[in-house]
Amino acid sequence: MIEFLKQRFASPSKNAYAVITGAGSGIGRSFALQLAARNGAIVCSDIDLESAKETVALVEQAGGKGYAVTCDVRDAKQVEKLAQQSEKLLGHPVTLIINNAGVGLGGKFDEMSLDDWKWCMDINLWGVIHGCHYFVPGFKKQGHGAIINVASAASFTAAPEMSAYNVTKAGVRALSETLFSELRKDNIRVNVLCPTLVPTNIIKNGRIPGRYSKLADHALMNYAMTTSDDVAKLTLNRLDKGELYTTPQIDAKMFWLMKRASPNLYAKFLGFSYRFVNNKEA
């Protein structure tokens, strides 16, 4: 009973045995460094092994333990192997999975190919599904665990010319909301991160049409209201408190409240704004 209560009220981000996908840069790397500062041991996985190794070097400089592993989250078998390999590397069952790997995709709906859609869905949505699928059974078996799924404010803002990206992030949010209630009885915490602009490599590694990519990259690097380090710290703190949502920036909170207050009016406003901007550019 005492052990059960310890696990029930423990802070999942402290002394964690964690796995992070997309840990080679951006928010993934920031999560790794925050966990290292909290005495964690971290498996840093990324499709780019060299970038994962760079994160591990930073983790070890911060006094944590890190292990670099290559993993393409689109491939279920690779994620299954990641789950098995991580427990061996850590020498302990995994207690926290952070499904962070993601890509950007923008453009008009009728200009995007089905290959673009599949690429985005496979990484942003199926990658998160794979992560949850292969780590949740272990959490249930040990009687505790934690999940952080990185979505986006795009999951509810539904901005034009971001259809595929919006759909994948809305799916991540819906999955997280479902698991939050479903896994509560198993002492498994779930948090979903929904930021707006955060300086990362998502534009660089994404498929953004030329007319938008420079503008988007400029906005990310110059007008973001927070840093990836601050986002990671806040998310881990909210996970520890048992909270479901992390919306780090004030603009994300405002969009969330606007849409909840009047969904139809919000959609009309978005459409009007989109037409106004396009007419101005014409």
Features:
282 residues; alpha/beta; Rossmann fold; seven-stranded parallel β-sheet
Q: Explain this structure to me?
A:
The chain is α/β, with parallel strands linked by helices and 282 residues long. The protein has a single domain, classed as Rossmann fold, CATH 3.40.50. The chain is built from eleven helices and seven strands. It has helices spanning 2-9, 26-37, 49-61, 76-90, 114-142, 154-157, 163-182, 210-223, 228-240, 250-261, 263-281, and strands spanning 17-20, 41-46, 65-70, 96-99, 145-150, 188-193, 245-246. Strands 3-2-1-4-5-6-7 form a seven-stranded parallel sheet, with helices on both faces. α2 runs parallel beside α3, α4 (76-90) runs parallel beside α5 (114-142) and α5 packs parallel to α7. The chain is globular. The termini are far apart.
**What structural category characterises the helix and strand content?**
alpha/beta
Portion of residues in helices? Answer: 55-70%
Q: CATH H-level name... which superfamily?
A: NAD(P)-binding Rossmann-like Domain
CATH architecture: 3-Layer(aba) Sandwich
Radius of gyration: 19 Å
Q: What is the tally of beta strands?
A: 7
Mean pLDDT over all positions: 88
Strand order of the largest sheet: 3-2-1-4-5-6-7
Please state the overall shape, judged from the principal axes of the Cα atoms.
Answer: globular
CATH class: Alpha Beta
Q: How far apart lie the N and C ends?
A: 68 Å
- What's the number of helices? 11
Q: What assembly state would you assign to the polypeptide chains in this entry?
A: single chain
**Biggest sheet: strands, sense, closure?**
7 strands, parallel
Low-confidence stretches: 210-215, 217-224
Instruction: Note the beta-strand portion.
Output: 5-15%
